[in-house]
Design goal:
The chain is about 30% helix and about 20% strand. By secondary structure, it is of the alpha/beta class. The protein folds into 3 domains: about 130 residues, 3-Layer(aba) Sandwich (Rossmann fold); about 120 residues; about 80 residues, no CATH class. The strands form 4 sheets. The chain has a 7-stranded mixed beta sheet with strand order 8-7-13-14-15-12-16. A 5-stranded parallel beta sheet has the order 10-2-1-11-17, with helices on both faces. Helix 1 links the parallel strand 1 and strand 2. Bound molecules: flavin-adenine dinucleotide (FAD). Flavin-adenine dinucleotide (FAD) binds next to helix 1, strand 5 and helix 10. Flavin-adenine dinucleotide binds next to helix 1, strand 5 and helix 10.
């Protein structure tokens, strides 16, 4: 550890790790990474399950999708990848439905045998006859997929995931998250050219990014990491935490919601056979389950007697009895209230006016993905290198 560094990076998630790696290796700068938790990885952290031997993503499964060759070529320098096309099912009344909604989902849900044109006509009529709360997430949803499909597949899921009814939430990126398809495509992100998983998990990838001898990492740093970063940096600070921390929360603190993933072993016969299943009904307390043994990088024994399943729910929901005492991991997300969106926009608009401070990562763009976060991190380093 040194007294000072060229750059201090706040946060050892994927965004902070990419910036640290590039500034160290292509810029030749000395870097200190300050991380609030006890290990690197952020939302992409994994742990080893001692019973089944698999490595599992503690906050739930993630897949890498990208159309950006620069991003993919860059990441491939830090480990091997396995191809993986993500497919998700929604479970309602013991029936599985393809999500995002496709033609098969529509016919199965409505008991129809529409072709693509008939299904489009149904959705169009349903949109036109729907009552909508203006300017909200509900409006974005209902004007995209109609009231019937929204009530069946989206409202309960989002209410449980975001802790409030979409009728009072902001409309962030609904169409990107919940597209509707009038064919039988069942891949989660069919358009992305590259779809894959790191062979040894995302957190191993992040450890490789941070392995440069020009990078020091300090864990368990306190809440005042921005002040520490300013004190220890000679050239600049890169921040991947909550953006209000850069301004002492002068326009009020940003609000965060909190979800929890509880992990439990079950017999394979008793659980889902998909890596990810969603639960759009209001009765099931969790909104999503994860079975990482079905991911191609898990190296799970197909004959294992037990399988590990993660149950993802709001931290405010009552934990069902069958999960009490199970290991549980909490993550925070930017709350989607209309006021929080406005406040977030105020803070993000001010960041570009700061000298020597660069903000990036998921706290800057709500609903980002890993590929986009890496792309923005690479662009940020180019910007920094041109300005110093
Ligand atoms: C439920 C869910 C599912 C997702 N699924 C996918 C998916 O399948 N595919 C995909 O591409 N993307 C997915 N994403 C998005 C993806 O996980 C994130 O975009 C990405 O991991 C964010 O990386 P980051 O580095 O910006 O943030 P983080 O991973 O949150 O890392 C930030 C790090 O900074 C640290 N930190 C924060 N504040 C401070 C501070 N003040 N001082 C010191 N350290 C601090 C944190 O502890 C953390 O380690 C999903 C996100 C969620 C929430």
């Amino acid at each position: 550890m040194f007294e000072s560094y060229d750059f201090v990076v706040i946060g050892a998630g994927i965004a902070g790790a990419v910036v640290a790696e590039r500034l160290a290796q292509s810029g030749g700068f000395s870097i200190l990474v300050l991380e609030a938790s006890c290990s690197a990885g952020g939302l992409l952290r994994s742990d080893r399950d001692h019973l089944t031997g698999i490595k599992y993503p503690i906050y739930g499964s993630r897949a890498l999708y990208s159309d950006d060759e620069t991003v993919i070529k860059y990441l491939m320098n830090f480990g091997s990848f396995v191809p993986y096309e993500h497919r998700v099912r929604a479970r309602i009344n013991d029936r599985n439905f393809v999500v995002p909604i496709n033609l098969e989902t529509i016919n199965q849900a409505l008991g129809t045998s529409f072709d693509a044109e008939e299904a489009k006509a149904f959705v169009k009529d349903d949109i036109e006859s729907s009552a909508i709360t203006q300017g909200t997430l509900e409006e974005a949803a209902v004007t995209s997929i109609g009231r019937s499909l929204y009530e069946m597949f989206v409202r309960g899921f989002l209410t449980k995931q975001l802790g409030a009814d979409p009728a009072i939430l902001s409309d962030d990126a609904f169409n990107a998250r919940f597209p509707i398809r009038f064919d039988n495509e069942d891949r989660f992100v069919p358009a992305a050219k590259w779809q894959m998983l790191p062979k040894n998990g995302f957190d191993d990838l992040i450890d490789q990014l941070l392995a440069s001898s020009r990078i020091d990492v300090r864990f368990d740093v306190g809440a005042d990491s921005f002040a520490t970063a300013k004190r220890l940096s000679r050239i600049g600070v890169v921040h991947s935490g909550s953006v209000d921390a850069l301004f002492n929360q002068q326009f009020g603190p940003l609000e965060y919601g909190e979800n929890i993933v509880c992990w439990k072993h079950s017999k394979p016969a008793d659980v889902q056979h998909f890596p990810v299943v969603t639960y759009p009904d209001f009765e099931t307390p969790y909104f999503r389950t994860h079975a990482p043994a079905y991911l191609p990088n898990s190296m799970a024994d197909p004959k294992a007697e037990k399988i590990l399943v993660g149950y993802e729910m709001s931290a405010n929901a009552a934990i069902p009895d069958f999960l009490s005492g199970c290991p549980a991991y909490r993550y925070r997300y930017l709350a989607k209230s209309l006021e929080n969106k406005r406040r977030h926009a105020v803070y993000t608009s001010l960041v570009s006016e700061m000298s020597g401070v660069y903000a990036l990562g998921r706290h800057m763009i709500p609903s980002p993905n890993i590929g986009a976060s890496v792309g923005i991190a690479l662009e940020t380093v180019e910007r920094i290198r041109h300005s110093v």
